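Running co-folding for adenosine-5'-triphosphate.
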Amino acid sequence: MDPGPAVDVRGLNKYFGKKHVVRDLSLQVRRGEIFGFLGPNGSGKTTSIRLLCGLLTPDSGSGTCLGFDIARETAAIKREVGYMTQRFSLWEDLTIRENLEFVSRMYGMKNRSRAVSEALENLGLSSRQGQLAGTLSGGWKQRLSLASCMLHNPHLLLLDEPTAGVDPRARRDFWDHINELAGSGITVLVSTHYMDEAERCHRLAYIAYGRLLVSGTSEEVIGSQALAGYEVTGPDLPRYAALLRGLPFPVQVTAFGATLHVVGSDSTALNDLAQRMKKEDSHDWKPISPGLEDVFISLMEKAEEDIT
Amino acid sequence: MISGFSWLRWSGIIFKEFIQLKRDRLTFAMVVGIPIMQLTLFGYAINSDPKNLPSAALIADHGPFGRAVLQGLDNSDYFRIVREISDAADADRLLAEGDVQFVVTIPGDFDRKLARGERPALFIEADATDPSATGNALAAVAGIVRASLARDLQGTLGRLAPLSDPVDIRVHRRYNPEGVTSFNIVPGLIGTILTMTMILLTGLAMTRERERGTFENLLATPALPIEVMTGKIVPYILIGLIQVSLLIAAAYFIFNVPMVGSLALLYLSVLIFIAANLTLGITFSSIARNQLQAMQMTFFFFLPSILLSGFMFPFRGMPQWAQWVGSIFPLTHFLRIVRGIMLKGNTFAELWPNLWPILAFISVVIALGLLVYRKTLD
Ligand SMILES: Nc1ncnc2c1ncn2[C@@H]1O[C@H](COP(=O)(O)OP(=O)(O)OP(=O)(O)O)[C@@H](O)[C@H]1O
Ligand SMILES: [Mg+2]
């Protein structure tokens, strides 16, 4: 029997006072997939995740999380979901071990002491288990939170920027672990600002001003925008960049070391320009395929225009 | 809601609160320090001058002289004769329950003895648990009595008038014969300190979680509101009991306050009073957005409650409207209960008139608390 999608919500809306923070959010996350949730600061990612796990009640719209209604069956959702908050939310005045033990009690787990010891072992914190959680470094706090929200073997992980401030090695370990979990059938919804992490997700959604703008695999997301891109090299790049920004059609000009990336949604205009430039001046224009970051920045700028 | 109640989760929350309390030195110091500090500070009582104290008249001789004395007392600022009784047992009951502050007894043969110049006795029994409430009134008695008899004693019995004191006034300060102020202050401190620390600590306990962001984590777990609310209350009940024991011990051993009534009854009342304050604290913390607001609410409640409860100023010295407002506060009733038990040896039946208002207060606050408890982050 097909258990249905892990997350399936339609038309969710959330207001804070007069502020419309989540607008008509519809989202499907399949079981066992890693789903990336991206968007600029203040776009409503955290709010959307809170709606999914029953921490906030939507003003309108409905849906299910692991088959449970997000408005009425929040108790069941809470048992099956592991939620890692964006801000460190474990108890700073409890030790590392006490935190994990408390969480294991809240989920009514059996063999608590063993589960906690195992988690500490995996984290590599066994020797520091008596240290107060508040005295950990930022990255270690993240890793502890992650361990704590996975303690009760949830079927769905909602991770709100889990790797913010975590070093590259730990980040890679974390993603390897997430992949393993997904392989064993656990669904992961993860919000992030890192492009390399976005690329490691099976599917993505991009949200701005509370509105979901695109979703799909990273190829689909890139394809949907039909951007053209060039890598420009040559003398006096800063002045050249200022010149390009003054063009009559919108382009994004970003400096990458000794090169400029020029990306635009009006591909015909940009291609023409590149042809002309190659002949006229000493700069070298090489076509490149735009990446996720280019797509997201372009989406964000478009959304800004729509709003204003 | 109760159906999914889990003892494991509940005890987990209690356990966590205890660990956090243990690590929070400041709170710990406050819990022990406040009682000791206040005890020393309030050793010096604040006096005031209450008027119109309700009094009962026990009349054995209905002659004109006795009438004149009662009339004189009633006309004075201090006394207001509200009852006439004929039985000494009634007098005891009225004093024990605090319905009257004084019982004035006109003994038999009062008129005849007075006419003969035999200086008959006039008995005044005072509820002296709060000496500042009775002190001025008692000091004025002799003058009032002399003045009210003066006119009658001129005329035919004029020869008696020069006698400075026609009547032998015998004052009996009940419950606190020496008029020791600490007898009143110590029970009062038990009430005020409990009000202060219980409301403040529970008020902070919930808002602290909200402010630090840990509330989001707690909400994301399957823990039920009832488990969280009550689990957070339990450690503070224990703290309250420790404070009370500290104060009672100090009262008994250092200030020599008598312990006439039942200790068990005292602790029962203390538990009810603690419950009233904790429910209020938890309710405050559901309304408050942060710790500062919780603290402000606590003080907005705490100040009128010490000012109007009869702790700072004798209850009967306050204007009528203030007495009505004062009757809302659990502290007002708790003060009477503690004085009643420690100094008067009150029984449960005698305490009931002051117990039920506290229970009523609890029910109203719980109803309010469940109404405002936020199960989500909105
Ligand atoms: N409790 C709240 N009350 C009022 N406004 C809120 C509340 N929580 C969030 N907001 C507002 O809702 C908007 C969306 O916030 P949200 O935290 O969901 O953004 P986000 O996408 O997670 O941002 P970031 O990438 O910075 O974490 C913001 O403008 C924020 O100010
Ligand atoms: Mg966020």
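Result summary
The mean pLDDT of chain A is 90.
Chain A has eleven helices and 14 strands.
Job closed.
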